[in-house]
Amino acid sequence: MGRHYLPNLAHRDEMLKEIGFNSIDELFSDVPAGMVKEFNLPEGKSEYEVFLELSEILSKNRTVLEMPSFLGAGTYFHYVPAHVKYLIERSEFLTAYTPYQPEISQGMLQALFEYQSIMAELYGLPVVNSSMYDWGTAIAEAALMTVRLHRGKRKRFLVPKALSPEKRAVIATYTRGAGLEIVEVPWDEEGNLDLEKLKEAVGEAAGVYVEMANFFGLVEENVREIGEIAHDAGAYFVVGADPTMLGLFEAPGELGADIAVGEAAYLGNPMNFGGPRAGIFAVRNDKKLIRQMPGRIIGMTRDAEGRRAFVMTLQTREQHIRRAKATSNICSNEALVAVASAIHLASLGPRGLAELGEAILKNTAYLRKRLSEVAEIPFEGLYFKDVPARFEKPYSEVHEALLERGIHGGYYVGKHFPELGETALFAATETTRKEWVDALIEALREVA
C-alpha cells in the first residue's frame, strides 16, 4: 500500500491519534473479519495504454444485430428514436440535478411536469411523482405507503408469486427495517393470480399488488376482480403495468387501482446493462394518498406577475424536510431517464403507442407459436413480451448450444421457480425480427 500515493497518507498516524485510534485495524474493528483488504492495484498506465486495453475488451462485445437475443425478464431491447438521445443531451437536461432551488430550474421543472402529465393520462390516475429509482423500488415504496396509510396497524403486503425475483429482493430489502410481512400469493392452473388463495390471505393486508403482465409474460385476466377483493378487505390496490402495453389495454386507474407503478425506462432509454432506470408512481386524487407519496411532485402555478411558473408542489423526501417526517429516503431523482421517456411518449402519441403495443403483441404471439413446436408452453393465455418454454433436457445445455450457434437464449427461471422445471423465458419486442425467431427455432430443433 505504501508504494501508491494516497492523499494525506503521511498524516495517517496523526489523524488516527486525533480520533482516538492506534491503527487502521482498530478503526475498522467492528467490520467482520476478512472484509477489509489491501488493494493490490497494478502499476499505473498512460491514458493511451488504458484506451487500447479497454478497446480490446470492448471489441469482444456483439450487438443484437450480430447475435439475436431473446433475453428479457424485465430488461428489453426497445428501439429509441435518434431525436430522443439528441434532445436529452442538451446541457440543460444532461447536467441538471435535483433542483434544490426549483425557481431557477424552470426548464427542468416543466419537462418533469410534462412527464407527470403524460404518465397520468397513460396510467389513468391524476397524480404522478417525478419518478422513483426503478419499477422494483416503486413497488417497495408503494408497500411502505400502504402501511403508513393504515397508520402501521396493518403490516402485511401481498404480492404475486409470479414476480421477478429481482423485484422481490428489492421489496424485501426496502421493507425489512419497517417490519413489513411480504406474503406471496400463488398462481392458478392458468398462471393467473389464484383468487381463492388471495381471499384466504388478504385478511389484515395493508395492500395487494398485481402486475400487467406478470413475470411469465401472461396478461393477468382478473385485475378488476383482484382489486375488488383487496378493497372489500380494506386493503389498498396497487397495480404494476408496463407502459408499452397501455396503448392497447385498460389503464390501472380504470381497473380500480389506488396506486400504480411501472418502468419509465422502457421508453426513450437503452438497456445500459440494466440501468439507470426510472420508476413510475401514480395515485388517485385523494389528499390522504397524495400526502403519503414518496419523492416529489412538480406543479404549475402563477408567479407574482401572473406568469406561468413551475414549482415543487410536494417534496417529502429526507433532503427537503426533517428526516423523521420524510415519506422516502430516495436521494436522487432519475430525471434524465424520465425526461427521455416523456419525449419518446410525446413523439409516439396515442396512435403510435397503440401501434407499438400491437407490434410487440404480434411478435410475442409469433414467438409463442414457434416455441410451442419445440418446447412446452406451461400456461395458456395471452402473452406480452415474455413467453415461458419448458424443455426436457437441462436448459443450461440448451443455452450453451444456442450461444455456440450465435443466438442468445432466454432467462432460466427454474432456479427461482423449481416447480416449472427446465423453463426459460424468451422475450420479443417491436425490434424482434421474424428471421431471428425462425433461426432460434431451427437451432432449438437441433439441440433441445
**Number of domain modules:** 3
What radius of gyration results from the CA coordinates?
Answer: 25 Å
Number of strands: 12
Contiguous helical run count: 14
Q: Return the CATH architecture of the largest domain.
A: 3-Layer(aba) Sandwich
Shape: globular
Order of helices and strands: HHHHHHEHEHEHEHEEEHEEHEHEEH
Strand content: 5-15%
- In which range does the helix fraction lie? 25-40%
Residue stretches low in confidence (pLDDT < 50, at least 5 long) are none
What's the average pLDDT? 92
Distance between the termini: 52 Å
Q: Tell me about the biggest sheet?
A: 7 strands, mixed
Q: So what's the CATH class of the largest domain? A: Alpha Beta
CATH superfamily of the largest domain: Type I PLP-dependent aspartate aminotransferase-like (Major domain)
Q: What spatial order of strands do you see in the largest sheet?
A: 1-7-6-5-4-2-3
CATH fold title of the largest domain: Aspartate Aminotransferase, domain 2
Question: In terms of structural class, how would the helical and strand content be classed?
Answer: alpha/beta
